[in-house]
Amino acid sequence: MAISPQLQKRIEAxxxxxNQELHGPKGCPPWGTKFVDMEQATTEVGDAIACAMLSxxxxxxxxxxxxxxxxxxxxxxxxxxxxxxxxxxxxRRGEVAWQESxxxxxxxxKSFFPSVPSLGNRAG
Length: 124
Prior knowledge:
alpha+beta; three-stranded antiparallel β-sheet; two-stranded antiparallel ribbon; 41% helix; disordered C terminus
């Protein structure tokens, strides 16, 4: 993915705000702080941002595409989604979490979770 100049400017503005929150009004750690320590702090923040973005994307995807009632893959009976299940996935940058509806076929009792294309399901 290419980052547009507009998004790059927004990233730089957010980075400035986060540095001020981490280090105070100066926006930088004290002189003499080891590079490895600065890198560790920024890596933790970057990982947290990546996980928050992924969690939000997955939640929005589940709400937009995964919640409408579907049909049972076993018998074709309509499946109402009456409950919500929490999902947790280990990503490269940390854990991501979201919730989605699920149901159980009243006729054949097969459990049904909506398809989530971003998790390897190519349907959709």
